[in-house]
Amino acid sequence: MRLMMQRKNNKRSKPYKHLTAVQKQSICKCKKDNPDISYIDLAKNYGVGKTTIQNIISQSKKWLDIDINTVTAQPLRNKPPKWPSLEQALWLWTTSIIENNLPLTGETILVKARDYAERLGITDFKGTDGWLSKYKKRFNLHNITRHGESASAPSEECIERERTRLRDELESYNLDDIYNGPLLGYGAFENLV
Predict the structure, then answer these.
(1) Segment 80-97 mean pLDDT
(2) Structural domain boundaries in the chain
(3) How far apart are CA 117 and CA 82, in angstroms?
(4) Which of 19, 38, 103, 164 is 20 to 30 A distant from 147 in Cα terms?
């Protein structure tokens, strides 16, 4: 009982520090380039314990093979997603939504993810809030609230698409038969009927 009390009162002298895949790769490169550097020196340079450095160096091949330009190299933990094909498909859809400046919510992402999971034949995907938060963290998505005019304004691509559709639709009409309703006002059409 006394031993347990002592352990509860003992606090770590340093808080835990998590390293990104890029940092772990840097440690492995440093050790590879300088084989004489000690684990203790590396630990001091990166602010972690000697055992952490030893564990990273023991997995050097894994860390040296990582492409640091990928999105998955930036997170603190390098745990791959359970459904990479689902997330890749969803990421393509998400980027198209963002590029077109369309509204995107967590619920919309979940609905689309469940749809893609069904199409890909993934039966054990539930699409929980926990999965959503991890997906958003993996791909660095965050909430942005648009206010005022920017919240309702369509993107340039949407406007151009609508203009093209309208031109195609009006092509068969004579220009004298085309009226611009807002310029004429509502009352202008009463005499035409």
Answers:
(1) 86
(2) 2-73, 84-138, 154-189
(3) 12
(4) 164
